[in-house]
Amino acid sequence: MASSTTTHPPVLKQPVKLACVQFAPGPDKEANLARAAAKVREAAATGAKIVVLPECFNSPYGCDHFPSYAERLLPSPPSPEQSPSFRALAAMARDNGVYLIGGSIPELAVGAKDGNGDEDKTYYNTSLTFSPAGALLATYRKVHLFDISIPGKITFRESDVLSPGSSLAIVDLPDYGRVAVAICYDVRFPEMAMIAARRGCFALVYPGAFNLTTGPLHWQLLARARAVDNQVYVALCSPARDMSAGYHAWGHSLVVDPMAQVLVEAGEEEEVVVAELDGNKIEEARKGIPLRDQRRFDLYADVSR
Ligand SMILES: NC(=O)CC(=O)C(=O)O
């Protein structure tokens, strides 16, 4: 255990506005990219310097859709033909001078050919983060796939089509500090969030698409839980609800502060929500309730067994 006089460097260098862009992607990818670009412009006009898009912002969300919308991201940078979404995201970041956490897109990774000459195809749910100059800062592949079955309510098995990623994304935004990027179902795993906070992230950012069963019960609860566990900001960015789509997203994109207060929360329609993040709030929370110096790692070894 660290002593009560342990000093910690600030994790957020200067206050920054973060915006979550909640919009409803439809079946037309080009239209989704254009809509995302217009919404990022709207977000940047509020003064936001970190802008977040929703999970699967360039396609409808669903296992049937992943292969047909998937784009190749490797080798990086991909050509515009391989990934129109990569190119569009880089332009959105550069044109607006913002850090852009580009929601997620279905990714196709192509491996060696088999005996029949067919390529080995792997699909991921992947998030790309860009700098204000339009440079790729991080690629994150969803680690925990959304496989659930709640009888009479919802069954979803991302793993029928997708493969899980195998690394975390802790992204350095040079003007501000570090953020962790993860996707949707990942928010249910506190271990990941704790690692990110202990590595100095000031915010945990989750593009996500909860649904009408789990959304009302768990969406805000999980955001507030990850915030209070780790005394960091948490942002969850959802698609807007579209009842004509196959998957009904919960919406309610939100930003929570390090004391677990909801700073801003959308409804179910399209909306850009913006909150100011302030490093002093993190330090105040950690000074008042000094969890980081009180943890008993001597007793927690079992957690990864
Ligand atoms: N869509 C997800 O990945 C997760 C979700 O909807 C839930 O955890 O509930």
UniProtKB/TrEMBL annotation:
<dbReference type="GO" id="GO:0006107">
    <property type="term" value="P:oxaloacetate metabolic process"/>
</dbReference>
<dbReference type="GO" id="GO:0050152">
    <property type="term" value="F:omega-amidase activity"/>
</dbReference>
<dbReference type="InterPro" id="IPR003010">
    <property type="entry name" value="C-N_Hydrolase"/>
</dbReference>
<dbReference type="InterPro" id="IPR001110">
    <property type="entry name" value="UPF0012_CS"/>
</dbReference>
<feature type="domain" description="CN hydrolase">
    <location>
        <begin position="16"/>
        <end position="279"/>
    </location>
</feature>
<dbReference type="Pfam" id="PF00795">
    <property type="entry name" value="CN_hydrolase"/>
</dbReference>
<protein>
    <submittedName>
        <fullName>Carbon-nitrogen hydrolase</fullName>
    </submittedName>
</protein>
<comment type="similarity">
    <text>Belongs to the carbon-nitrogen hydrolase superfamily. NIT1/NIT2 family.</text>
</comment>
<dbReference type="GO" id="GO:0005739">
    <property type="term" value="C:mitochondrion"/>
</dbReference>
<dbReference type="GO" id="GO:0006541">
    <property type="term" value="P:glutamine metabolic process"/>
</dbReference>
<dbReference type="InterPro" id="IPR045254">
    <property type="entry name" value="Nit1/2_C-N_Hydrolase"/>
</dbReference>
<dbReference type="GO" id="GO:0006528">
    <property type="term" value="P:asparagine metabolic process"/>
</dbReference>
<dbReference type="InterPro" id="IPR036526">
    <property type="entry name" value="C-N_Hydrolase_sf"/>
</dbReference>
<keyword id="KW-0378">Hydrolase</keyword>
